[in-house]
Design a protein that fits this description.
Strand order of the largest sheet: 6-5-4-7-10
Number of helices: 13
Pfam families: HTH_24, ROK
Family: Belongs to the ROK (NagC/XylR) family.
Organism: Mycolicibacterium llatzerense
Protein name: ROK family transcriptional regulator
Largest sheet: 5 strands, mixed
Number of strands: 15
CATH topology of the largest domain: Nucleotidyltransferase, domain 5
Shape: globular
Mean pLDDT: 92
Strand content: 15-25%
Number of domains: 3
Distance between the termini: 26 Å
Amino acid sequence: MALSGTLVAPTPGDVFALIRGRGAITRSEIGRITGLSRTAVTARLSALEADNLVIEPEYAASTGGRPATQLMFNIDAGIVFAAAIGRSRTQLALCNLAGDILATADIDQEPGMRPDDLMPGLVRRIEALLDDSGRRGDRVFGIGLSLPGTVDQQRGASLDSPNMSGWDGVPLAPYFQHLTDAPLVMDNDANVIALAERRFGFADVQDMLVVKASTGLGAGIVMAGQLRRGAAAAAGDFGHSKISAAAGVPCRCGDTGCVEAVAGGWAIVRDLQADGYAVNHLRDVVALALSGDAKARSMIRDSGRHIGEVLAAAVNLINPAVLVVAGDMVGAYDVFVAGLRETLYGNASTLATRTLQVVPSVLQERVGIVGCATTVLDHILSPNMIDASLDARLQLSGA
């Protein structure tokens, strides 16, 4: 925000960011913090109120006389769609502008589904959520979507992801065109999970590693309080790191020797099916482990060992304060993390692990859709986007 004493005065978007961050604030406080005159504050608030982004409920905030009017971010000004697309399941949600989940639905999908196989049904399910929740007429601010694998955020498409056959380079925004022209914001599944975990569970942690252990494997990296995607947006894609335990074992990526080929959920399901188990997804394996099945528990613990072996190098490199375990494997957290700790602490340096905390996901089952909502909300409610939206609406009104 451009505060008093700078050459550029705070914009309506800057004022909105202040209100959104504070929760409730008075006009005089806005003027004091920003250095704007009373007239300038009123002008910016008028634009935000006209767009229904700011409301003025009254609270008795003074000890005498007329109570101060508190300005608040109107979290019910509209909604966003959230879609966490996985390899075996897609989670959908409608959320308000605070990221609160209003309605949800899951789509179980067959392996190898391509965009034309999945996306039309996904959009129809969102339409059903709108109707069932009575939100059909609400203003749609944006769509937050995640994919397993690398994402081209500019094009809104999967990028060089070997496990997403048929998805690479296919823009996903057109599938929503008949429903809304709101912007679509995409990211890798582990990245959105990392954003959600930091926002709602570890806001004070500046350096953390968030591991998604599910059908596939991936990690979100937060350093100095910022999500790190890497030069080619491939940071955290550790599932295809090579380990000796997987030597010669075919991976879904077409290579051999990847940690995912022995530790990913799909690999565990494959091996249990070969032993005659009636399992179709890692969630089935977790349920078996929780019921006491020795084979399932052993394989989940071994998965943790293999993953810990790879993550030890990451812990040495970035020295996180917290390592969060998320994804379907968190359902059997105690079993999984027993194996992970064994190799992680055995292979990482004593200094890097001295104060390291290994913890389960705070958001658990819904972390993916919360992360998708967080990702799109941070984009569309940023000062620059708010200013652009207000300018566009002003032009449309002919003012």
